[in-house]
Design brief:
Blueprint: E1 2-7, H1 15-26, E2 30-37, H2 39-49, H3 53-62, H4 79-89, E3 91-93, H5 96-107, E4 122-128, E5 133-137, H6 153-160, E6 165-167, E7 170-172, E8 178-182, E9 204-208, H7 224-247, E10 252-254, H8 269-289, H9 295-299
Parallel strand pairs: 1-2, 1-9, 2-4, 3-6, 9-10
Antiparallel strand pairs: 4-5, 4-8, 7-8
Helix pairs in contact: 1-3, 1-8, 5-6
Length: 305
C-alpha cells in the first residue's frame, strides 16, 4: 500500500523510527510522500533520496556521531570560553560537520536540492525565530528570496535539526537576516502537513517518539532545571498533541523512548538495537488493528513486492 509518512523529532532516539519503518516495509507499506522535524526530517530526507530503512540502519550504526560535534576554536582554551562563545554564537556547536554529513550521504544517491525529488515528496519543518513563525521547507522558501527547487536539502536538514543552544542557529540572508532553529520549537510532529486535498489521495501514518499523551504520567518539578525541561517539553508537544487528539490519533504509532535523551550522541550498539526493537514492536502492534479511514480509497493504491 502506498502511504504518506510523518516522523517526529527526537534526536538520536530516532533509531526507533528506523525500526518502525523497517516493520512497515516488511508489511508491504511504501512511502509516497514523507515529512518530518529534526530527527524525523533526517529519516524523511534519506527515504525520499532512495535509501532503504536497512541501509539507513547500517549508515547510522557505523557513524561516530560525536565526531559531528564541532565547537568553535578559541584563543583561550579555558572551559568557561565555550559559555562565552555560546552567548555570542547562540550554540555550543557550529553544525557545519553535521550539514556536511547530510550533504555527503544525500549526494551518494544523486540528491542535492529539492529539485532532485518529485514535487511535494519531501517536506521539512523548521522554526523562524526572527519572525516568530513556522517554516515549511521547501514550500515557504520563496518568502525569503530563495528558489525552492535549488535549495540544498542538507541546509534544510541543518535548519530543522538546529537544537537551540546545542547547535548554532542557521542565518538566512535577505533584506533582513533571519534566525532559524529546530522545527521542534513550533511543531515537533507535523501530522497536519498532508491535510491538503491533493495529499488525501492516500492514507497517512505518523511515527511519534513518545507515548500517547493519555498514558504520560505527570512531571515532578522541584527545581529550576526540572522547570526548564518541563517548559521546553510542553512547548514542543502541546500544539501537536491537541491536533492529534482531534484528528489523527488512530493513524499514529506512539513509540515510548523516554529513557533516552535527544542529545545522547554516544549510544552503544546495544542501545541502538533496543531502540530499533521498540520501533519495530510498536509498529507491529499498531498494524494489527489499524485501518485507513477510507478503505475503498486505500485499496486503489495497493502495491506489493
Amino acid at each position: 500500500m502506498r502511504i504518506n509518512g510523518v516522523f517526529s523529532g527526537g534526536g538520536l532516539k530516532g533509531f526507533a523510527l528506523v525500526g518502525a519503518v523497517q516493520e512497515l516495509n516488511d508489511q508491504v507499506y511504501r512511502f509516497e510522500n514523507v515529512a518530518g522535524t529534526s530527527a524525523g526530517a533526517i529519516l524523511a530526507s534519506f527515504l525520499a533520496a532512495g535509501y532503504t530503512a536497512d541501509e539507513i540502519e547500517i549508515m547510522l550504526a557505523e557513524e561516530d556521531f560525536q565526531s559531528l560535534l564541532d565547537p568553535r576554536k578559541t584563543l583561550l582554551p579555558f572551559p568557561f570560553m565555550k559559555w562565552i562563545s555560546l552567548y555570542w554564537r547562540m550554540g555550543l556547536y557550529q553544525g557545519k560537520e553535521l550539514e556536511n554529513w547530510f550533504f555527503d550521504k544525500l549526494a551518494r544517491k544523486g540528491c542535492y536540492s529539492f529539485g532532485d525529488l518529485p514535487e511535494g515528496s519531501l517536506k521539512l519543518v523548521a522554526s523562524d525565530l526572527t519572525n516568530g513563525k513556522m517554516l515549511v521547507l521547501p514550500d515557504d522558501l520563496e518568502q525569503y528570496g530563495y528558489h525552492p527547487e535549488k535549495f540544498s536539502i542538507a541546509k534544510a536538514l541543518r535548519m530543522s535539526c538546529g537544537i537551540p543552544y546545542f547547535f548554532e542557529p542557521v542565518r538566512l540572508d535577505g533584506p533582513n537576516e533571519t534566525i532559524v532553529v529546530d522545527g521542534g520549537v513550533l511543531s515537533n510532529f507535523p501530522m497536519w502537513i498532508f491535510d491538503d486535498a491533493s495529499a488525501k489521495k492516500r492514507p497517512t501514518i505518523g511515527l511519534k517518539l513518545s507515548r500517547n499523551q493519555k498514558d504520560v504520567p505527570g512531571r515532578s518539578i522541584h527545581n529550576a532545571l526540572q522547570l526548564f525541561e518541563a517548559l521546553f517539553s510542553t512547548m514542543k508537544n502541546a500544539h501537536d498533541e491537541k491536533y492529534i487528539s482531534r484528528q489523527h490519533e488512530n493513524n499514529v504509532v506512539f513509540i515510548p523512548v523516554e529513557d533516552y535523551s535527544a542529545t545522547q550522541f554516544d549510544l552503544n550498539e546495544e542501545q541502538m538495537e533496543e531502540l530499533l526493537s521498540i520501533g519495530r514492536s510498536r509498529t507491529k502492534e499498531f498494524l494489527l488493528t489499524w485501518q485507513p479511514v477510507n478503505l475503498k480509497l486505500a485499496s486503489k493504491h495497493m502495491s506489493y513486492k
